[in-house]
């Protein structure tokens, strides 16, 4: 009551009207969001196909729409009829240089983002990336060692893939050291993450050692360029053997995506819902590591994709992995293909992908932190 003894009816009425207006605006925004989100989701799923088509025209060698269409029709007709494919400069550029690189960007981007979002779910940590178990450092050491000893592209890929898997198994083995049989059924997520950090540090030191003993005029530049990430030397044959592990790992994670929802809860709650936490966590870790190792073996170490893309996907479709994991796959593929196109045309000499993904991903991540969008649920 004011000093005059009269109630502030005008002020109260104004507050009520303001609250009603804010509720109406909120309801209107929610209604607009419900209408727009399905449209945005459909456009995002179409984005890789649009970027794939556009990417065929991006590069140093100019190709017109007519030339690309004509070469595609000729190649398709020759394949259907079993006739020899007519060889030309346009055909070589499109099908031997650009198309393998485009497909590699889609595969690598999808693999890294799928692995990243899976790791973030099972470890319940928004800062987890595909390289959390030392896979990136392990694969990097394997590639550096192969460059130093053999300098054969196929051996570089195979060695990088093998050492990436080795790093994962080393981290898991280290996390179980010292565990008493009756103390805990499995190592905690924090123990696994810390073990991965230790393994990654060891392999990073080994990479430095290889760089130290490498020939500074021959091997060292190749090692440095590979570690920065690039898809410049990709050919169709390089994709054939990584398609299988990427497909298998992605398929298993896609089929288990509803279980990742359960694993994102506390272990006790997940067990109460009937999920074998230890076994499911191990399966998801192995599949996500398979994706990461296969991707790194052909592209080098490309950062931020598996860290930033899952957060963008959560903003679009929410934390439910039934929708989140497919969205991360699509966005990751589109993101890396877009960045790879920038790497080819921004400067006269190609920029390594790791540099561009850091320049794009780090500001995005800082923006998400400022807006409070960082989280795993």
Name of the level-1 CATH class = Mainly Alpha
The CATH topology label is ABC transporter involved in vitamin B12 uptake, BtuC
Q: Percent range for helical residues?
A: over 70%
Strand percentage lies at under 5%
Brief characterization of the structure:
With 377 residues, the protein is mostly helical.
Structural account:
- Helices cover 76% and strands 0% of the residues.
- The protein contains 14 helices and no strands.
- It has helices at 9-55, 65-81, 89-123, 135-149, 153-175, 189-213, 219-228, 236-255, 257-263, 267-272, 277-299, 305-317, 321-345, 353-371.
- The chain is mainly α and 377 residues long.
- The two termini are 46 Å apart.
- The protein has one domain (54-371): ABC transporter involved in vitamin B12 uptake, BtuC (Orthogonal Bundle), CATH 1.10.3470.
- The mean pLDDT is 81.
Write the layout of secondary structure elements.
Blueprint: H1 9-55, H2 65-81, H3 89-123, H4 135-149, H5 153-175, H6 189-213, H7 219-228, H8 236-255, H9 257-263, H10 267-272, H11 277-299, H12 305-317, H13 321-345, H14 353-371
Task: Give descriptors for this structure.
377 residues; ABC transporter involved in vitamin B12 uptake, BtuC
